[in-house]
Design a protein that fits this description.
The complex is a heterodimer of chains A (110) and B (114). Chain A contains no helices and 11 strands. Chain A is an all-beta fold and 110 residues long. In chain A, the strands form 2 sheets. In chain A, strands 2, 4, 5, 9, 10 and 11 form a 6-stranded mixed sheet that branches. Chain A has a 5-stranded antiparallel sheet with strand order 1-3-8-7-6, with no helix packed on it. Chain A is globular and about 45 Å long. The termini of chain B are far apart. Chain B is built from no helices and 11 strands. Classes of the chains: A mainly beta (110), B mainly beta (114). Chains A and B meet through strand 4, strand 5, strand 9 and strand 10 of A and strand 4, strand 5 and strand 10 of B.
Chain lengths: 110, 114
């Protein structure tokens, strides 16, 4: 089966850096996604990691360690608009499905 | 390029009724996945269709069903509605349905069962 754990809520200050962790257990691992979802809106794609290491994309970076079943999303220079839920999701080979964690609600305060 | 379109956006139904939700994927996308989103559970996978074939199904009762048409549009049906079916139903499309590709989500249909 597949299981994903991530913190329920986090709070950070505007301009700061925040790291959102995700641990997973899955068979036939075929990559890990991060999505952002603002309240009342559809999730939007942020990143995809299939190999170990750090992928950087502007203010957002995502890290993967397959041996540890661990990923994190790093958000730098936080802005108020970054207040949203961040969803960690895994895909598996041949399963044709992406499984999502419950999401981490990030509150950015001034 | 138009995004993923879901209709209706909001729906109120009574227990015991049935409901059909529609999803039009991005033009050219052949894979459509459906998810149920509730505050406590997050996104729960319902099923995935590719070229009119259901390739995977989540752990939902048989009251939840779906189909995909030749133009890739998809519908999901919930029969004998229960209060617990109240949720946001999201569909997502991707080009080939490979599990390593980005999915594009619609705005969802918010179903309320009373």
């Amino acid at each position: 089966g597949q299981n994903i754990d991530q913190p329920t809520e986090m709070t950070a200050t505007e301009g700061a850096i925040v790291q959102i962790n995700c641990t997973y257990q899955t068979s036939g691992f075929n990559g890990l996604f991060w999505y952002q979802q603002h309240a009342g809106e559809a999730p939007t794609f942020l990143s995809y990691n299939v190999l170990d290491g750090l992928e950087e994309k502007g203010r957002f970076s995502s890290f993967l360690s397959r041996s540890k079943g661990y990923s994190y999303l790093l958000l730098k220079e936080l802005q108020m608009k970054d207040s949203a839920s961040y969803l960690c999701a895994t895909s598996n080979t041949g399963g044709f499905k992406t499984i999502f964690g419950a999401g981490t609600r990030l509150f950015v305060k001034a | 390029k138009a995004g993923v379109t879901q209709t209706p956006r909001y729906l109120i139904k009574t227990r015991g009724q049935q409901v059909t939700l529609s999803c039009s994927p991005i033009s050219g996308h052949r894979s459509v996945s459906w998810y149920q989103q509730t505050p406590g559970q997050g996104l729960q996978f319902l099923f995935e269709y590719f070229s009119e074939t259901q390739r995977n199904k989540g752990n939902f009762p048989g009251r939840f069903s779906g189909r995909q048409f030749s133009n890739s549009r998809s519908e999901m049906n919930v029969s004998t509605l229960e209060l617990g079916d109240s949720a946001l139903y999201l569909c997502a499309s991707s080009s080939q349905g490979q599990t390593n590709t980005e999915a594009f989500f619609g705005q969802g249909t918010r179903l309320t069962v009373v």
